[in-house]
């Protein structure tokens, strides 16, 4: 495990400086190179701070999943959607998903989005009859919807369902259980004592189930943390959520060991994720764990040999397929630009008047850059997000 | 995080676990099952937190809630295991949590006939986990506040309950005081239901309470658990299957 870092990852100077660099030097050139430099985008999404703004996410997320923004699926019609076998369950879960929407959102607006949420879920399921809906799938869908809008969300959800989430979408949860079964071996590699304690308590791994199958969207109350993790997972191996789960448990090692060695107590403790986790640290630790104990190594254990994961076995091909994407400037059909569905985005609305500023900033000299840098100091909390609006 | 428990609810048990060894508090473990959407989360939340949750979310896997109660001068811990309703979760996921359960609460939604028709399957599933008639079981019809949309009449439900030798309670997690039934005055009906179960458990032989119900394997004493745990991967596989 890496030692605790001395640099404050939330230092606004640092964030601003890095993000300026990062967007101008890495992200934009990667988006515009032909083929798109997905490798660099991936690294950017997983590196400190993630993609930082939803505007950037809208550009980068599709590339991470090999989606052509000019060939998005059409808005699904409502005809016959209630005939789908999962219709009732989806409606039930979506109607209970109020917490996933921004706090101040008017309920009428939320209702529209919830309708769209039902639509996109059923649309992906309709196109993929081999996939089964699971409770928690809606937490993934809502995260996508809130960032990239309905049509792009369908495209992204479609790809995720075929690859990253594939194991969770079997008719039974056996494959999901198989993925969860990687958790304890990782812990055993790192902290045998903690591992043995948890085994003795017979706590099982269901405490991490919702983390895994919703990419933590179900358990984090701050949307920005969910987004940060989605940047990371979209850019990573499909097993990464399990490595993060291991990292979180390891991070809470003291707490765990001080708890009564009892299933109920431990399940209770672990299933409630602390909301103030040091995400950046945990992300880099998960990457370290992944490098030290990759899935292929763990899979040699007898307990993990009974099953094969589709998400793991198809990942290589998926990754290769993302390497041949043309940049949007090349893909763009002659009279389009209208074709890209506009998503809801509170943040974006806040920055609507910034088009002029945007252009100006593109041409900024280093001096002006320094001036903005100074502004950033006084704008600590909202600095990264708002400043990045400018790009 | 759906309806997290208020800190107060848990503090007593946490402090007792810090200062070893606590005066032995008996624990009653009750599993709550039934179709998705019938109100299991709301009912367990109502009992443990004393109110109807403003927003619930789909339960993914198993949620755990706990409350300390006082029955005839004895402090007892009631653990409620709130399970996911979607079938796929039950088959391979929730099993682990059926073990060592002292009582079962079956829930259906009085405004949803399908949730009532699922009950035989739930009962069967419990039997497969060695939770048969020897374990106290009750049947709860929830959402009685929605009187205009009742689909499952009391007669039918009562008949069904009788045929499975279970007591029936009709209630509402949302508005539990509107019941005329067993509750006296304005006390909370949901609370009364769970307390009835607790009383029943307390009146049973004490031995039964600290051990798993017959048939589910009596190997929970610490030493045999440790043996299970010595081989990491095997112990792990066992605990999850
Ligand atoms: N009117 C009414 N609604 C209820 C009652 N109990 C639960 N609900 C609602 O039914 C839905 C499902 O409840 P929930 O507890 O999440 O069901 P679960 O899937 O069985 O856990 C939620 O929208 C609740 O607000 C009740 O007693 N009366
Ligand atoms: Mg529930």
How would a textbook summarize the main sheet of chain B? 6 strands, mixed
Cα distance spanning the termini of chain B: 26 Å
Gross morphology of chain B is: globular
**Overall 3D geometry of chain A?**
globular
Counting copies of identical and different chains, the oligomeric state is heterodimer
CATH topology of chain B: Rossmann fold
Q: Let me know the number of strands of chain B.
A: 6
| String of helices and strands of chain B | HEHEEHEHHEHEHHHH
- Tell me the CATH architecture of the domain at 174-309 in chain A: Orthogonal Bundle
Protein name (chain A): TBC1 domain family member 20
Organism (chain A): Hippocampus comes
Pfam families (chain A): RabGAP-TBC (PF00566)
Keywords (chain A): GTPase activation, Membrane, Transmembrane, Transmembrane helix
Question: What is the secondary structure topology, with strand pairs?
Answer:
The complex is a heterodimer of chains A (391) and B (241).
Chain A: H1 12-32, H2 38-46, H3 54-64, H4 87-95, H5 107-127, H6 137-148, H7 150-162, H8 174-180, H9 183-190, H10 192-201, H11 209-214, H12 223-234, H13 240-251, H14 253-258, H15 263-271, H16 279-292, H17 295-298, H18 310-321, H19 328-331, H20 346-350, H21 355-362, H22 366-378, H23 383-389
Chain B: H1 7-18, E1 26-33, H2 40-49, E2 62-71, E3 74-83, H3 87-92, E4 103-109, H4 113-117, H5 119-128, E5 137-142, H6 154-163, E6 168-170, H7 189-203, H8 206-210, H9 222-230, H10 232-240
Parallel strand pairs in B: 1-3, 1-4, 4-5, 5-6
Antiparallel strand pairs in B: 2-3
Helix pairs in contact in B: 9-10
Bound molecules: guanosine-5'-diphosphate and magnesium ion.
């Amino acid at each position: 495990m890496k030692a605790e870092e001395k640099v404050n990852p939330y230092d606004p100077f640092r964030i601003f400086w890095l993000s300026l660099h990062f967007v101008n030097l890495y992200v934009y050139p990667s988006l515009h190179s032909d083929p798109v430099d997905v490798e660099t985008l991936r690294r950017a999404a997983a590196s400190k701070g993630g993609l930082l703004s939803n505007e950037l996410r809208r550009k980068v997320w599709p590339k991470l999943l090999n989606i052509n923004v000019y060939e998005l699926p059409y808005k699904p019609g409502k005809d016959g959607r209630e005939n789908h076998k999962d219709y009732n369950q989806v409606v039930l879960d979506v109607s209970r998903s109020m917490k996933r929407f921004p706090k101040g959102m008017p309920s009428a607006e939320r209702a529209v989005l919830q309708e769209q949420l039902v639509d996109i879920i059923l649309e992906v399921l309709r196109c993929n009859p081999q996939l089964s809906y699971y409770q928690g799938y809606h937490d993934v869908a809502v995260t996508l919807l809130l960032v990239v809008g309905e049509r792009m969300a369908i495209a992204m959800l479609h790809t995720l369902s075929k690859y990253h989430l594939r194991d969770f979408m079997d008719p039974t949860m056996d494959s999901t259980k198989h993925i969860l079964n990687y958790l304890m071996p990782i812990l055993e590699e790192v902290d045998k004592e903690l591992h043995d304690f948890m085994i003795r308590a017979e706590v099982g791994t269901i405490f991490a189930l919702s983390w895994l199958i919703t990419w933590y969207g179900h358990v984090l109350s701050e949307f920005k943390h969910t987004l940060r993790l989605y940047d990371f997972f979209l850019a990573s191996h499909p097993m990464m959520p399990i490595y993060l789960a291991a990292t979180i448990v390891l991070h809470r090692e003291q707490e765990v060991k001080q708890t009564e060695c009892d299933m109920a107590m431990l399940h209770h403790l672990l299933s409630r994720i602390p909301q103030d986790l040091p995400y950046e640290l945990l992300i880099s630790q998960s990457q370290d764990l992944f490098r030290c104990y990759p899935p292929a190594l763990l899979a040699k254990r007898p307990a993990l040999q009974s099953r094969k994961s589709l998400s793991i076995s198809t990942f290589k091909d998926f990754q290769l397929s993302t390497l041949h994407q043309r940049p949007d400037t090349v893909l763009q059909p002659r009279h389009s630009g209208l074709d890209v569905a506009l998503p809801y985005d509170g943040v974006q609305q806040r920055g609507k008047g910034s088009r002029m500023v945007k252009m100006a900033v593109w041409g900024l000299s280093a001096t002006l850059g320094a001036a903005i840098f100074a502004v950033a100091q006084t704008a600590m909390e909202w600095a990264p997000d708002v400043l990045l609006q400018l790009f | 995080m759906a309806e997290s428990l208020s800190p107060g609810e848990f503090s007593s048990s946490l402090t007792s676990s810090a200062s070893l060894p606590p005066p032995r508090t008996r624990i009653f473990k009750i599993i709550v099952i039934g179709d998705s959407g019938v109100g299991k989360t709301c009912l367990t939340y109502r009992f443990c937190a004393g109110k109807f949750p403003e927003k619930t979310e789909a339960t993914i896997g198993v949620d755990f809630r706990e409350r300390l109660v006082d029955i005839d001068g004895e402090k007892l811990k009631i653990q409620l295991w709130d399970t996911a309703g979607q079938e796929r979760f039950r088959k391979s996921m929730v099993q682990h949590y059926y073990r060592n359960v002292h009582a079962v609460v079956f829930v259906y939604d009085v405004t949803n006939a399908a949730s009532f028709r699922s009950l035989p399957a739930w009962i069967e599933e419990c039997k497969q986990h060695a939770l048969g008639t020897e374990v106290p079981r009750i049947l709860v019809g929830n959402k009685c506040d929605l009187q205009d949309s009742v689909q499952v009449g009391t007669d039918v439900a009562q008949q069904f309950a009788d045929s499975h030798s279970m007591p029936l309670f009709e209630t509402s997690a949302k508005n539990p005081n509107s019941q005329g039934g067993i509750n006296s005055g304005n006390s909370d009906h949901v609370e009364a239901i769970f307390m009835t179960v607790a009383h029943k458990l307390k009146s049973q032989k004490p031995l039964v309470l600290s051990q798993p119900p017959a048939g589910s394997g009596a190997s929970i004493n610490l030493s045999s658990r440790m043996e299970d745990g010595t081989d990491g991967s095997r112990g792990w596989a066992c605990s999850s299957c």
